[in-house]
Amino acid sequence: MPFSNSNWSLLESINSPTDVRKLNTLQLKELSRQLRAFLLDSVSSTGGHLSAGLGTVELTVALHYVFNTPYDKLVWDVGHQTYPHKILTGRREKMAGLRQKGGIAGFPKREESEYDTFGTGHSSTSISAALGMSIAAKQNNENRHCVAIIGDGAMTAGMAFEAMNHAGDCDANLLVILNDNDMSISPNVGALSNHLTRLLSGDLFSTLREGGKKVLENIPPALELARRTEEHVKGMVAPGTLFEELGFNYYGPVDGHDLDTLIPVLKNINQQTGPRILHVRTQKGKGYFPAEDAPGKYHGVSAFNLSTGAANPGTTNSGSAKKVPSYTEIFGQWLCDMAEQDERLVGITPAMGEGSGLVEFSKRFPKRYFDVAIAEQHAVTLAAGMACDGLKPVVAIYSTFLQRAYDQLIHDVAIQNLSVVFAIDRAGIVGADGPTHTGAYDISFLRCIPNMVIMTPANEADCRGLLTTAFLHDGPSAVRYPRGSAISNVGDKGSNDELRALPFAQAEQTRKGYKVALLVFGPLLNTAMEVAEELDASVYNMRFVKPLDTDTIKSAFEQHDLLVTLEDNAIAGGAGSAVAEYLNANHHTSRLPNLLQIGFPDELINHGDPAELLADWKLDKKGILETIQSRINSDISPQN
Predict the structure, then answer these.
(1) Most buried of the four, 97, 106, 392, 613, by CB within 10 Å?
(2) Which of 491, 626, 480, 482 is nearest to 564 (CA)?
């Protein structure tokens, strides 16, 4: 075994859910205990998402015990909670390589296992996917169960309700497990509630309900009265009226850590058909006090000491003499500073207040802080409405999540040319979270939108300066920056504490050389400077993707043999493509543009350490040097 504790004899005997289904109730409880212990030991060694998985141990065991997986389909929402699922489905030994290059993913991945029925990473997709599988099963005459497991946070997104509305309309054979671990939809968890849910999910109640409908179906007023009476009676002990109105039979809430209740309820529901929802209450971080006490802190963790909960040495920079701030922290400080100066500023986030650096802002300016839950589309249109009436909204959002609000970005913001600032975090490579979270496309999908201004800071001063530029701009704008620490302030000529706008659509030359010019869009500037020392090349911190500083590009083109664009975005449609378009349309000499575009190729970027991934895609110093030298050796012709 790759981990230290050896008291997992029962867990070690489980190689697939088939083995789980051979156990008795006492053994299932012991399996849950060992599974939780293994999960703690494993994630403390590798890092990863912890709190959510600790809260779904018993639920995962019960689902694989009751349902005939993988024939029956389990679709997990988001995927943070699926480590116990991975461990029980033949990947226990592979947990040592979790989220590492060449190792298993941190989210369900169809290529990884037949038990991962649907690839996830973003929230609120599970009900739609499971419904699609249910419809496919019906079309194929397959009597399989399709189960969506979704958290209370993910249930806030409109897509979840769109799927439930459709499921109720088409009477799909679908079970939704609502894993309520934070929002406290209802406090009715206990012996009475568990007992009533077992009764409501059993054959007797279902037979009476269906039989009563048949008796009363020819008496519409009586049928309506009976339906409403049933809902009101159930409403006394369970908050299921909304789901019932959508066409679902509601059961719960039940204690998701009580296998003695959970398994019989699932078995009962397993005998029913049509759309059903089981409301399960669980505790994030269950079984590990530090995570129970602060589930948000232990949502995603680096490797840590299991005894103390403290991060292992080398996983943070807390021991350094001067802590280098992250781009997220720079944004959070800028937001507070700008809010002090302009009372029109409001901050909006779709359930990423902590991840996007808005915690301090939310405390200092609570009436100007809006966390709209997992609702990216609403966040963008909300900002548009605010901008219409004189506020200055700043939408803090991850690059990967902005993709979900693309229509609103175009239709509601850009077409109306509204002054909304998009602070785009996690641009470029994100590392361990893999392709679902990689921010490799935002330049490409933003650049084609009229009225949009796109900025790419290269360091701390740039980030503050360009955010200020965006805020003062009259129209939509985006400032994109990566995860992690900011690089040194190459070319900075002012204090980082100042709120000064940078010259609009103007680049800055940070090194003068000859023959080769590096046009850098974003955080690869430090690497470009190192490369330039080797080549004696010129370096330009471009800062603006749209509008381009065409004067600088024209000058660089006329003074150098080769232009090289560097960006942490897909080459297709990216900043380099913008430079190519300008040169091809506007070069003013007989010499054709000699341009080399360096960025991400047309491939998905898998999970792994960011430094390793940059090296794989030749975006580290060595790779960039090799790529440029290869072009120099093969393509450059001396100027006449």
Answers:
(1) 106
(2) 626
Distance CA 27, CA 50 (A): 24
Same domain, 57 and 165: yes
| Catalytic annotation present for 284 | yes
**Does residue 318 belong to any structural domain of this protein?**
no
Report yes or no on 542 lying in a domain: yes
CB 395 within 8 A of CB 422: yes
From the CB of residue 602, how many other CB atoms can be counted at a distance below 10 Å?
7
Determine the Cα–Cα distance for residues 424 and 427; give it in Å rounded to an integer: 7
Whether 171 and 265 map to the same domain: the answer is: yes
* Tokens (6 digits) for 288: 């590990």
Give the model's pLDDT for residue 192.
44
Neighbours of 19 (CB within 10 A): 14
Distance CA 465, CA 70 (A): 53
The Cα 482–Cα 494 span in angstroms is: 22
pLDDT of residue 14: 96
Task: Spot the catalytic one: 244, 376, 508, 567.
Answer: 376
* Whole-prediction pTM: 0.84
What does residue 67 show for φ and ψ, rounded to 5 degrees?
-95, 150
Percentage of the chain exceeding pLDDT 70: 85
What is the full DSSP assignment across 237-278?
A: T---HHHHHTTPEEEEEEETT-HHHHHHHHHHHHT--SSEEE
Strand 345-349 vs strand 300-301: parallel, antiparallel, or unpaired?
unpaired
195 in a structural domain: yes
Out of 73, 92, 284, 621, pick the active-site residue.
284
Q: In this structure, is residue 199 part of a structural domain?
A: yes
**Residue 144 annotated to the active site:** no
For the chain, list residues with pLDDT below 50.
Answer: 1-4, 183-189, 192-193, 196, 208, 233-238, 316-321, 490-495, 637-640
3-class DSSP state for residue 599?
A: strand
Regarding beta strands 453-455 and 477-480, do their DSSP bridges make them parallel or antiparallel, or are they unpaired? parallel
Q: What is the pLDDT of residues 79-101, one digit of tens each?
A: 889 999 999 999 999 999 999 99
- Given 392, 404, 480, 511, which residue is catalytic? 404
Of residues 454, 446, 459, the one with CA closest to residue 488: 459
* Torsional sign, CA 138, 141, 143, 144: negative
Domain extent for 178: 51-80+106-287
- The residues facing 392 across adjacent strands are 345
Is 376 one of the annotated active-site residues of the chain? Answer: yes
